[in-house]
Amino acid sequence: MWSLPTSSKDVCRIVNGLLKTALGPPPGSSTILSPVQDITFRHESVKCLVSIIKAMGTWMDQQLSVGDSLLPKSLENEAPANNHSNSNEEDGTTIDHDFHPDLNPESSDAATLEQRRAYKIERQKGVTLFNRKPSKGIEFLISSKKVGNSPDEVVSFLRNTTGLNATMIGDYLGEREDFPMKVMHAYVDSFDFKEMNFGEAIRFFLRGFRLPGEAQKIDRIMEKFAERFCKCNPNSFSSADTAYVLAYSVIMLNTDAHNIMVKEKMTKADFIRNNRGIDDGKDLPEEYLGALYDQVVINEIKMSSDSSAPESRQSNGLNKLLGLDGILNLVYWTQTEEKAVGANGLLIKDIQEKFRSKSGKSESAYHVVTDVAILRFMVEVSWGPMLAAFSVTLDQSDDRLAAVECLRGFRYAVHVTAVMGMQTQRDAFVTSMAKFTNLHCAGDMKQKNVDAVKAIISIAIEDGNHLQDAWEHILTCLSRIEHLQLLGEGAPSDASYFASTETEEKKALGFPNLKKKGALQNPVMMAVVRGGSYDSSTIGPNMPGLVKQDQINNFIANLNLLDQIGSFQLNNVYAHSQRLKTEAIVAFVKALCKVSMSELQSPTDPRVFSLTKLVEIAHYNMNRIRLVWSRIWSILSDFFVSVGLSENLSVAIFVMDSLRQLSMKFLEREELANYNFQNEFLRPFVIVMQKSSSAEIRELIVRCISQMVLSRVSNVKSGWKSVFKVFTTAAADERKNIVLLAFETMEKIVREYFSYITETEATTFTDCVRCLITFTNSTFTSDVSLNAIAFLRFCALKLADGGLVWNEKGRSSSPSTPVTDDHSPSTQNFMDADENISYWVPLLTGLSKLTSDSRSAIRKSSLEVLFNILKDHGHIFSRTFWIGVFSSVIYPIFNSVWGENDLLSKDEHSSFPSTFSSHPSEVSWDAETSAMAAQYLVDLFVSFFTVIRSQLSSVVSLLAGLIRSPAQGPTVAGVGALLRLADELGDRFSENEWKEIFLAVNEAASLTLSSFMKTLRTMDDIPDEDTLSDQDFSNEDDIDEDSLQTMSYVVARTKSHITVQLQVVQVVTDLYRIHQQSLLASHVTVILEILSSISSHAHQLNSDLILQKKVRRACSILELSEPPMLHFENDTFQNYLDILQAIVTNNPGVSLELNVESQLMTVCMQILKMYLKCTLFQGDELEETRQPKNWILPMGAASKEEAAARSPLVVAVLKALRELKRDSFKRYAPNFFPLLVELVRSEHSSSQVPQVLSTVFHTCMGAMMDE
């Protein structure tokens, strides 16, 4: 391009001059031209403008084709619209360009100018943003370093920058946030009110902004103003409060005096009266207030106002419809300007100055310009007049040649602005053309409008790579064309596809052929005939009145004009999409999704035209590289999800079916390993399945997925993830038919196509397992749950045997042969087990959680399958993995029995993945389930004892937890399991391991004791039988409901507690009897501690007479059996006595080391005292005296019953004494002889006691006396 040095206004003058000619003389002015001359003159001016924009486009195309090395890099990109700097204030995006200054001097100049221009545009962008949202604008300017981050620098910007909205300045200064508050303070402090009149100070202060409308904001600003004024004038008022109140009064006076809406004005006297006492209770001088009143009333305090737009010129109705008023105002305003305005004008002036400096003295010198960026400046100053000239001419003239010329101008202008990346200008031209098609008001359509449609189609095909956001206007036009053509041909409306209540007969009828049958007073038809505005997405049918026949006839005639545009031309735009470049096709898809959404969301006439086109263009572009196709699908995916969740069920079904068709086509393509695009492609099904509230849609998705998978199973790779997610969601669905339908397909996949699941990626195995686990939780039918559990066992078998294709490949490169042994399995990691943990974890933990299912059959089945899997495949587990299995799979199973505690929180389990977590208990086990679980646990532990020996302590603690369970079933199960564990492994236990077992049992017993004693204290507030009469003893009327519940709970808790303690005693006793030869003194010590503790507790419980009375009364009222406290005491002492006697007799070494014989005597004496207490003195304590009593009371019924219960125990004590060695008997005889004498004097319920007592005296005491 040859550029002659010109003045800064030459380009503007040329274009604006042609615009003036094209528009003709202004209204009301005279001209010497005839009408024909005037029209010719106008048309020639339009031709000149078309030639100018055409020349620009021609030169631009030449430079782009031969001078690529001199272009900005952004122009070499496929999407210049996204990379060029943009002066659109609303866009808020500017990008610097690299102009390669070393290649061309003009390029260097342009780069420098562009940088300066970019700075100014960036700053102007901040101003624009400030005028919309002040806080955002300041943040943007500070972040882009156009304004400093200190309050003072922001104040300088607010006070010195032109173009700021005064109202927004006031709003920002009134904000309560910290930084705006600091800015407001700095802003007010920047004023100097020294020696200034108060009224003038307010007037001066308010020149820079307008007070905000919110009272709190005004309050903050005026409060600071008052403070500043008093600081500058310290002697003006008594305090800043006076200035604050007076400032409000002045503002109110100003509003009252100068607002025409206020009829009754405030008088001077009113003003003075309103301000009395504001100066710390004193009045300000009346002369001062009167002068202030006159000053405000005479001279209005005018706040800063926004720049007013130029006066609007009168426009005809079509100009308003087409939105031309703003364009014409812009043009007329620029014609009256003396100077170039804004950053562009300054940059153009700089270019001209550089041209002058290079031209020397010759004013006719030309300069070669090869930088396309220079063209932007020319377009920026000329596009407005061109748009106005083309639009007004096309609007006002029906001349075919003039219309064609204007449309040519539009096409050239769109081409130039689109290629140059000038989004605002491009969109303005495209929008104007779209409005001129008049498709939104087809009843007024003319030939020039049809020509505009053709031009739109040409632009779409020729400049599609640069249209970007403008695609939406073009595709909207194509949608409206198709709609009108269908109506003209009488084809059924798309709405018929969505109307579920219509009969097939009505659907077949559709609309009549309007070209043949005339008018039809159908609401939708009437709306189309009437038309609407261009921006209306839907045309409402509720407008009053019927369509007249002449309107119908005119509409039909105009529809005939659309016959010039065939379906081939429309479809060509969509077919041409496969030739679009990357950024262009992405923009095209975005726009088409918007148009389709608008069609589908129409409340009166939903359409699927653009939706079908979306499926088509997806098919056309499916062969693009994955990187591009992924970007396209990310847009389509969100669209399908949004529409699939539509409240319009018919629309959602249509969309899901369209997605199914597209997915079927895509699954025909083979996907390689390690890709994830199939999963992304099917993601819309997953999201809609998870979020849709429509059962019909969820069922449709399950059917679609089932059909796709079963028909394309060999092609499914990464898509398995989405498939299993859909079925997982379906498994938890509230509709039974959806659950069964999904499980039917899932069953077929696992049975027949399992090898395909992990063909390319083994992680899909985990997804499959999670899906099956979800099916196991289905409550509709147990068959589904049980079959799913069976499939989980099948999956475990495949995993252990290397059935995963991925595992087989791993083995081929790194073979591993696990060593199997019934008692000593391999301890090395199975096939580098760290990589396989993620596959076993969900399977095992899922089954573990199922053990707390409320259904007994599911609990038992899951227990059986889980422990069978562990037992069958445990030989390939490493020790580390086994630790994890125990801590997070096995132990949580028993939560339902012993609840949450810190029993298993040990550091040794911390290395296991955090995905393992104890699941909360929901259902208490029955006796059968508890027995099964304990039995399975012991079997597993015995089978892999060598590997999992470190878990002995935790396993024993767990069994001890079962023993101390309040329920009978778990307690019995725990006892049996612990005994079996000791029986199977007792000979392999070390000293410490035996000690761990007994310590665990001891801990279980002690924890039970402490918790039970807390329970007993709840009975303290309940009266016993001593405080009640005989009539009130069994009367429950004087006991409230809470006390009854407490009594009932304590009785039940006491019974279960006694059962648990007896079970602990049984376990300890049996363990000693079976393994006494293996036990050391340290083990015996723990055993004796347990027995001593429990027997002492039993004696204490049975000796608490007050507690017994309360319990007896509670049982009487509640009609319950009493807790067997006496039996508890006798049984514990009997076992304690037996163990002590066995140690003394069978293990003399331990007995001597622990002095067990002394403990035996102590227990024997205690038992005798308990017996004598009930037989001899009926409750009085035994006096420690050897003086004989001279009277004996007979036993009562209760005492006889107790004596009879204790007789066997006393007999055992006497036998134990009898069996003592002579030396031992002699040593302890002084201690127990008085007790034996008392036995002689006592009344006995059993004859066996005197008989054994006689034997003791005869054989032991007699022998000792003979010595």
From TrEMBL:
Residues 94-103 have a biased composition (Basic and acidic residues). Signal peptide: none annotated. The keyword Transport applies. GO terms for cellular component: cytosol; membrane. It comes from the Eukaryota. GO terms for biological process: protein transport; regulation of ARF protein signal transduction. Gene3D superfamilies: 1.10.220.20, Arf Nucleotide-binding Site Opener,domain 2 (1.10.1000.11), Leucine-rich Repeat Variant (1.25.10.10). Residues 74-109, 809-828 are annotated as: Disordered. This is SEC7-like guanine nucleotide exchange family protein. It comes from Arabidopsis thaliana. The lineage of its organism: Eukaryota, Viridiplantae, Streptophyta, Embryophyta, Tracheophyta. The gene is BIG1.
